[in-house]
Design a protein that fits this description.
Layout lengths: L19 H9 L3 H13 L3 H12 L5 H5 L2
């Protein structure tokens, strides 16, 4: 198996609420603030951001690497 497969996980090192935006930012290799602003805009424009955040929160596992790096 190839261990270099990129997976979407919730960040344990860069989190404000559940680590969803931090995890998406790590996956896309962008600043987490950009993702947070996009989620905020999506929430204000019809509530889609809330449902997307909730689904990712429930579906994505936590990142194990964040806890290993801090030790």
């Amino acid at each position: 198996m190839d261990n270099n497969i990129k997976r979407l996980t919730r960040s344990t090192s860069d989190r404000r609420l559940a680590g969803v935006c931090g995890g998406i930012a790590q996956y896309l290799n962008v600043d987490p603030t950009v993702i947070r602003i996009l989620f905020l805009i999506a929430m204000l424009c019809g509530g889609l951001g809330f449902w997307a955040y909730l689904i990712v929160w429930l579906a994505a596992p936590e990142d194990n690497q964040g806890t290993l790096q801090n030790q």
